[in-house]
Amino acid sequence: MTSRYADIYESWRRHPEGFWAGVASSEIDWIKPWDKVFDPALSVYGRWFPGAECNTCWNCVDRHAEKQPDATAIIYDSPITGAKRLISYGELLSDVKALAAVLRERGVVKGDRVIIYMPMIPEAVTAMLACARLGAIHSVVFGGFAAPELATRIDDAKPKLVVSASCGIEPGRIVSYKPLLDEAIELAAHKPEACLILQREQERCDLIAGRDHDFADSVEKARGTEVACEPLAATDPLYILYTSGTTGQPKGVVRDNGGHMVALKWTMRAIYGIEPGEAFWAASDVGWVVGHSYIVYAPLLHGCATVVFEGKPVGTPDAGVFWRIISEHKVAALFTAPTAFRAIKKEDPDGRFIPQYDLSSLRTLFLAGERADPDTIQWAEEHLKLPVVDHWWQTETSWAIAANPVGLGLLPVKYGSAGVPMPGYDLQVLDDAGHQVDAGTLGNIAVKLPLPPGCLPTLWNADERFRESYLAEFPGYYQTADAGYCDADGYVFVMSRTDDIINVAGHRLSTGAMEEVLAAHPDVAECAVIGVADQLKGQVPRGFVVLKAGAARDATELQAECVSRMRAEIGPIAAFRTLYVVQRLPKTRSGKILRATMRQIAEGETPRVPATIDDPAILDEIKAAMAVG
After folding, report:
1. I need a labelling partner for 114 at 20 to 30 A (CA). Which of 27, 108, 156, 165 fits?
2. CB 236 within 8 A of CB 135
3. Where are the beta strands (DSSP E) in 125-236?
4. Interstrand relation of 388-390 and 194-198 (parallel, antiparallel or unpaired)
5. For the chain, percent of residues with pLDDT exceeding 90
6. Is pLDDT at 114 greater than 70 in this prediction?
7. CA distance 362 to 378
8. Is the Cα torsion angle 564, 497, 413, 344 positive or negative in sign?
9. CA 159 remoteness from chain centre
10. Predicted local distance difference test score (pLDDT) of residue 508
11. Among 288, 314, 243, 290, CA closest to 143
């Protein structure tokens, strides 16, 4: 297929407002049209579609339920509990109206905040949409998050109500949510007026009289109540999503209604190559931005069936669960994190589970969330026999900054690249003084303002912090805090966070490039490289590897092989000499490796352990490995 990317990108560059106005007019139902497509005088750097009125829930649910009420909206599959359920657009509309009626009865109105603290179940999606229907601003907090972190978010968002569940279910254990929620409310200065609690059969909980209400009973009593979609300004907030802040105070990323819908609806066909009615699966969690954008809003805006998966890529029950889901539900595209595929590759290095399932429906695999190393991409290509597309975006943007747009005609894949800039993003690589660097030169990746529709207009109640965090370092630009380069063909190579660029004897080197070398070793399933302070060279790299299942190697011999490979690929300037073999790497629940935490351990500091860590015990294993090494 001939790619239309260059023409589309150029059409945006020539007429950016006309480009987005065209998408908005053809893809979204509006209650009232906009006064301006973009007004640079509003907010911090401008706002999209001011004056327009709309409702996100209408565009995600009602308009599809009117035309195709029996079409599947949600595919719920929980290999942990064995539960499965198909929910049509008509059924989803009934569920959303009923829950919206419950929220309204509890006093929730337009502009109020509602915290959603739930596992990966359909009710979490229903809660988000019910808030959107009323114009309430939802803030989803990852289910099972520690009580102090939840309390911090309660105090920042000041929710009128919390929607939660009695428990979440992880492989081999039940996570009791209610005690965590009770403790968080006790710790928080702000006290929500009410809590709606879904009682799960795996573990029920006690409800506090006067404050707590049974979710299922309340919804059933409200079933059949008519609740119209609230007309909202396109610039009104849809949700707040908290991301970790360097000060320890989480940053509340704000997403608006109008621009968010326009951008996400466009991506489904243009980037992901998906048609309405097809099954799309983002194997993430609604607590993360991928879950917001590509489990809930984008697929439903597009009239797709979206998969809500309560499980893990391995261990629920095995490394073939992804293939079972795809085969059973006829998934057209899978979007997951490189970490998930590394876990699958570690458990099933020869891909023996893959031929056991009919994957004929699957056209494309998309990877994002952390840099996709070429070895992982090539493994997936070899075993799946289909395009594997890396792309790059952030919590702050809600959709891809750079991608290989399948719907516009797949461009040639360059291993290690996240693709090319998408329309809306004038992406530039800058040196530390803010000057553009030549093609192939490592630098700070920044986006020239204004950011496109769908990106954050500001932080919740923190305009100045937004300026300081994202706009101050390079005036006129949004600083992504990612480092990388663009090649002569315009492909973007995101190598690491700017914090992970290390300076070895005056040479600026990317830990991402070093990780590519380690990942290419035939016995390595996962790896990480960090820079550690050194009196002589400033910093030196240290590597950590997890071996593939069944690979038993002498650590000294493996280190020698990896050092040799590093000298051959990066050069002696890398000064790579230290390698640790570990059982696993410390990660967040979304799969990001905690390199900064590992670096603090290596330098003898007390590590700042993020609340999002998947298993804190892994840090003790890392300390022990370094002590032995």
Report:
1. 27
2. yes
3. 137-140, 161-165, 167-170, 173-176, 194-198, 212-214, 232-233
4. unpaired
5. 75
6. yes
7. 17
8. positive
9. 23
10. 61
11. 288
CA distance 48 to 73: 28
Q: Are 329 and 279 in contact (CB under 8 A)?
A: yes
pLDDT digits 0-9 by tens, 440-449: 998 999 999 9
Q: Tally Cβ neighbours within 10 Å of residue 374.
A: 16
As a whole number, the mean pLDDT across the chain is 93
144 contact partners, CB below 8 Å, separation of at least 6: 119, 168, 170, 175, 177, 180
**Cα–Cα dist 257/110, whole Å:** 13
Contact 501, 483 (CB under 8 A): yes
Mean pLDDT, residues 339-362 taken together: 94
Q: Tally Cβ neighbours within 10 Å of residue 11.
A: 15
Task: Name 154's Cβ contacts closer than 8 Å, sequence gap at least 6.
Answer: 115, 162, 184, 185, 188, 190, 192
Q: Band of the pLDDT at 498, cuts 50, 70, 90?
A: low
Kindly indicate the confidence band of residue 629, based on its pLDDT and cuts at 50, 70 and 90.
low
- DSSP labels, 240-262: EEEE--TTSSPEEEEEESHHHHH
184: pLDDT strictly greater than 80? yes
- Residue keyed to tokens 């803010």: 434
From residue 125, alpha-carbon distances to 82, 197, 281, 314 in Å are 19, 15, 14, 24
Identify the band that residue 617 occupies on the pLDDT scale cut at 50, 70 and 90: confident
**Structural domains of the chain, ranges and CATH numbers in brackets:** 5-311+391-484 (3.40.50.12780), 505-628 (3.30.300.30)
